[in-house]
Design goal:
By secondary structure, the protein is mostly helical. The chain is about 40% helix and about 5% strand.
Length: about 200
């Protein structure tokens, strides 16, 4: 017969204490995890070992890219194509204010900057036309105007040979090549000069 208050509450089964075998397995797992973690941390003796900067790739385009990166890493002012006076000017630039109050000087600079995307012949043609109309003014030649811009800004041009089809420049890993790696066009053209033949980019 059912009597109030006589129902018994369900009790959770009592957990058996861990056996020695379970404890040993857990300790073994923790020991293995610690050993794996220790292997990830280099030993003090290994810190002095030289680690290679990069692993050479077997993919041609990647090899070329890595070669350019290596060239950039090694680049300095001294091992480039800059003349010693240019390097000196870059390392010790003028700190005085540039005087551009001379109207002829300022006109020459304005003319040069206006012909930035034009050829040297265009600048010289415009210069000659101005001098025919206004012979009393002093317009700098192309090279003098270019030199003045370089002296003021510290920016100089560095020239490299270029593929005739504009595939790439002969610089970096291509510096010593005589033909284009893409279209196979020669780097130089042969120009007869007396009994000899000269090469010109």
């Amino acid at each position: 017969m059912y009597q109030p208050g006589s129902e018994s509450e369900e009790s959770e089964p009592a957990q058996e204490p861990d056996s020695d075998e379970n404890v040993e397995e857990e300790l073994a797992a923790r020991t293995e995890a610690l050993n794996m973690l220790n292997n990830l941390v280099p030993d003090a003796a290994d810190e002095d070992e030289e680690i290679p900067e990069s692993i050479p790739s077997q993919i041609e385009h990647v090899k070329i890219t890595q070669a350019f990166i290596d060239e950039i890493k090694k680049a300095t002012l001294e091992n480039g194509k800059l003349d010693p006076p240019v390097i000196e000017h870059l390392q010790n630039p003028d700190e005085e204010t540039v005087d551009l109050t001379d109207p002829d000087l300022r006109f020459s600079l304005d003319l040069y900057m206006s012909c930035t995307n034009a050829s040297e012949a265009t600048y010289n043609g415009v210069q000659q036309s101005i001098l025919r109309r206004f012979p009393e003014i002093n317009v700098l030649s192309y090279h003098l105007a270019k030199k003045l811009i370089s002296d003021i800004s510290g920016v100089v041009s560095v020239n490299d040979d270029m593929c005739i089809n504009s595939c790439h420049a002969f610089t970096g890993p291509f510096a010593d090549l005589n033909t284009c790696t893409i279209c196979s066009e020669p780097r130089y053209i042969e120009i007869p000069s007396g009994r000899q033949t000269k090469q010109r980019p």
